[in-house]
Write a structure and sequence with these properties.
single chain; alpha+beta; Beta-Lactamase; 5-stranded antiparallel beta sheet; 5 helices; rod-shaped
């Protein structure tokens, strides 16, 4: 599995884990120990404690700083006996660090692109409005402003072509 899996009994001891959980936690000896000795994250320990208290599934995005910084999607589900009491808990940890990083890169890209597109559009609009307000009757200004409008249109075209090339 790509997710870390840990089974914790009613006495709060780890009774089973998979290899991925060992890698996520950076631990070699997990089985047989209380969960709070092997999980170094306060937020994750709180999530497990909340599941023991409420007997309901808990899910949260957690940042783990040790053994390396990771963003984890943590799900803690209770295992209930016939009497409704907790007989154990299953902890699932899925590393979503790369996904969050890509989302940030995409967000920054969209912000930068929108800024780069607004600049020539603002210039085009401003020079066109100035011409319409009467500057078109001054032949020197008319030629100067039309040259600027042409250059800004070319810049806008290059930006759009760059964006299309990036998307391919």
């Amino acid at each position: 599995l790509v997710s870390g899996v840990m089974l914790i009994n009613a006495d709060k001891q780890v009774i089973m884990t998979n290899r991925t959980m060992y890698q996520i936690l950076g631990e070699t000896e997990i089985t047989g120990k209380p969960f709070y000795e092997v999980i170094k994250s306060f937020a994750l320990s709180q999530l497990i404690d909340a599941t023991f208290e409420t007997k309901t599934m808990q899910q949260k995005e957690i940042i783990l700083y040790f053994p390396r910084e990771m963003i984890l999607d943590a799900s803690v589900s209770p295992i209930l006996g016939e009497d409704g009491e907790i007989t154990g808990i299953i902890l699932l940890l899925h590393d979503i660090t790369q996904i969050r990083h890509l989302e940030n890169v995409r967000s920054e890209f969209v912000t930068n692109v929108s800024h780069e597109l607004k600049t020539p559009v603002t210039a085009l609009k401003g020079f066109a409005e100035t011409l319409l307000d009467g500057a078109m009757y001054d032949e020197t200004l008319l030629k100067k402003f039309l040259t600027i409008i042409k250059e800004e249109s070319d810049r806008l075209h290059r930006l759009i072509m760059d964006i299309l090339a990036l998307s391919r």
